[in-house]
Amino acid sequence: LYGIITYILGMRSGKHEYKVMGLAPYADQEGVEEVLPLFDELLRVEGLSFTGSLSTPAVAHRLERELRDKRFDWIAGAMQRHCERLMREFTENALAATGATRVTCAGGLFRNAKANMFLKDIDGVEHFTVCPSPSDEAAAIGAAYHGYERLTGKRPEPLDTIYLGPEYSEREIEDAIERLEIAKYCRIERPEDIEHTTADLLAEGNIVARFQGRMEFGARALGNRSILSNPSDPELTPVLNHQIKQRDFWMPFAPTILDEFQDQYIINPKNIASPHMMIGFETTPEGREALKAAVHPFDGTIRPQILRESDNPAYHRLIRIFQERTGIGGILNTSFNLHGDPIVCSPEDALDTLLRSGLQQLAIGPFLVSKL
């Protein structure tokens, strides 16, 4: 259903549902209530099953006709509201049927961080987690775990990191700089402490791409293949949008916040972990001010990576230095790529993206690369 609505709104089904989610908070609530009944009859929850008349192609064509005179933001708002209701009702029914208090979510629908926000707040849920990058790509991890258990009879150890991709040596980075003749276009420096230098640049209002250590698995950049900026400065978001990310204007950015500062910025009484940017949270007044460039401007919610030092010590240290300079225990973090491209993986990817975008500075391994 979400895919059909994404298509009706002129976006790519199976790819741009997140844009509908980002658009939804802008909708007038009276308009949302006008559209909602059209969705209710198409998909409902009954116990632990979904029912409705969505399966016939004629239904999709009828829905398109009936929505033709409705505002696009009403449609987005109603779809998101209906999605949240269905997911919450199904989860509540499952808890009642099983007596469970721990909820683990997997599947592409759980990329919907706003709906996840409401699931974690259900009464009786004591533990809530969403598998990192829970779409089809994560099925390989589940298959490996299942196969290991079947073949050995042993339970596999929990996955304690999602930094599972390749990393590159200093020599490999230098070779890429030489092959691409980066010195023709950029100044290349080797500061004494790259994390300290990066934090200083961010505190001074610069946007810096960061390429360090092993690449993250999945769809979220978690600091090692990220573009970073000061989260309290909303004037930087148009620069990120127009010169680098080329995102739709209504889409919010997201932050990384240090675990030890989360109580200042988000409302999380159950202390739900969010290491992979998969769960939405309400913000505190301090959070809306300190992280204003990474908070949804209409509903004040946030989709943070809550970073423990053990998750990524170097990235944690960078933000800690930034906090010492600015008083802000978080950073705006968006994926290091141009719109439509995958997240950069290799040094060549990172350097090529620097040259093809409005980015001015890249911290790559021990080097700081700055456009001339």
Keywords:
372 residues, alpha+beta, 8-stranded mixed beta sheet
Architecture overview:
There is one protein chain. The chain is of the alpha+beta class. It has 14 helices and 14 strands. The chain has helices spanning 2-8, 17-23, 29-40, 57-66, 72-98, 113-120, 139-152, 170-179, 194-203, 236-245, 262-265, 285-290, 313-326, 347-356; strands at 44-46, 49-51, 102-105, 127-130, 186-189, 208-211, 225-229, 255-258, 281-282, 301-302, 305-307, 330-335, 361-364, 367-371. It has an 8-stranded mixed beta sheet, with helices on both faces. A two-stranded antiparallel sheet has the order 1-2. A two-stranded parallel ribbon has the order 3-4. A hairpin with a 2-residue loop joins strand 1 (44-46) and strand 2 (49-51). 39% of the residues are buried.
Query: What fraction of the residues are assigned to beta strands by DSSP?
Result: 5-15%
The radius of gyration is: 22 Å
Overall mean pLDDT: 93
Shape: globular
Helix and strand run:
HHHEEHHEHEHHEHEEHEHEHEEHEHEE
Summed up, the helix count is 14
Question: Strand order of the main beta sheet, please?
Answer: 5-14-13-6-7-12-8-11
Distance between the termini: 49 Å
How much helix, percentage-wise, in residues? 40-55%
Secondary-structure class: alpha+beta
Number of strands: 14
Low-confidence stretches: none
Q: Main beta sheet: strand number and arrangement? A: 8 strands, mixed
